[in-house]
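FAQ
Q: What does a multi-component entry look like?
A: The components come first, one per line:
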Amino acid sequence: MAFLAGTEMTGGYGAIDILRSCSISAEKGQVTVIVGPNGAGKSTAMKALFGMLPVRSGSVQLDGEDITALTPQRRVEKGMSFVPQVLNVFPSMTVLENLEMGGYLRKDDIRGTIEEVLELFPALQPKRRQLAGELSGGQRQQVAVGRAMMTRPKVLMLDEPTAGVSPIVMDELFDRIIEVARTGIAVLMVEQNAKPALEIADVGYVLVQGENKFTDTGSALLANDEVRMTFLGG
Amino acid sequence: MQDYANAFVLLLNYVVVPATTYGCQLALGALGVSLIFSVLRFSNFAHGELMSFGTMITLLVTWWLQAHGLTIQPLATALLALPAGVLVTVLLSLATDRFVYRYYRIKRSDPIVLLIVSIGVMLVMSGLVRFIIGTDDRTLDDGVRFVISAKQFRDLTGLQEGLAIRATQIITIALAAVSVGLLFWFLRHTKTGKAMRAFADNEDLAGLSGISAQRVVTITWVVAATLATLAGVLYGLDKSFRPFVYQQLVLPIFAAAIVGGFGNPVGAIVGGFIVAFSEVALTYSFKRFFSYVLPADWLPDGLYQLISTDYKYAVSFVILVVVLIVRPSGFLNTRSS
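Then the predicted structure of the entire assembly, as tokens:
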């Protein structure tokens, strides 16, 4: 059993199921990427794993424990962390305050973790007292990831972290994400930029209409002709 | 030169000092309204009645203290009763939240629905206040009246005009400064205060960070009810306590909050002073002022009062309308919504 495992999840927002018996799992120290066409249910699968969407059937397990019924807040306490695609920082608070809020639940000293996060994202170092709302898109994404890192999570989930940032910033972010995974965290992300994302993925999932279509290592998926022709534009 | 000094003292005495005091009271009220708006996301029209209720409780406790001979002369007894007033008002606002607002919050009702609900709460609270204490005009101040009287000032400076500073004015300005200082320190430097700002900034992300919505809401009500009671008691000390007047106070308070940009605490304070100074300056008769600064034969007839004091609430309305037309998000607003 994988560290985080959503098994045969079925569910949606109303009467119609968006996810249909969809299974996603993530392993510690690995980068897992979910790709697929628009409306495939990538973000929905992520939300189901984090408890933001009730599943009608199927289960979510974290480290062998069934967490299907837990609220997102309880899952944060269990060591999961989520970076939403948009509205993922506190814009009228400084970078430091954003990080502090990320560590809100922690009772111990969080200063060490703040320094670790700032080491991971050196670009934020000189901006620590600046308002997050005044930063560039790429820096804001770094703050968003940093905030999620503050709980010292075991699972870090990112919903399209590179949406709206330039290709250079995207490469930079991906490098950081690999670094995060190498520290033993299970990283799971949904990506619109399928090709570069699969290049860094240890495991890739291709979803189509809420179902698992292909599951393989990132490089195997990139080498797969059908995946390339259908989803990666040749 | 003497004439200009006289004119200056005249303005200080009749415009600057009263308007500063009134501005402090409005700012405290507007801060509460602004806080509720940014955290709970609705315009709380019952805030004036919350001030009224807090002042009433403080007055009742003041009477009880006076009856038992417990006073803190030369300061007003009401200051001793203030903590009790704050406590009961906090409890009332928490009960209101639990039994009224929480239902609509869980239903995720529109802000406009909550606004209408708050008008209902306002009517119930105003009925409650009138039922308990009646509609009469009451005096809260039983302390020493003047720090410096007009006659003392005249004797001291040899000017014709006197500058009277009442004890309640000093108390208002001092207490307002201290409580605003504490509020800003709380919001900027404590974990709970930062969590409140985070919740106001991005409710969903605050939830994802493990910040409890119920806790933030509770603390917001505690702070808002404290500010409301303080504003109400200071206004009552400075002028008098009359439920009808307090009900109308919600107008300049909302004008202040909107002028400064809803949801911005600095804006609420600036807005309070803008409204207070406009109200006082526009309803003041400048005839005596001109008699000092203009040559005698230039002196005009009439009072040189722009509008009658009966229309002072119209000033708030005009400011409100002008701001809403020219800059609907307020002058100091940083939020886009």
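Q: Is there any commentary attached?
A: Sometimes. For this entry: Residues 102 and 147 of chain A are 5 Å apart (CA to CA).
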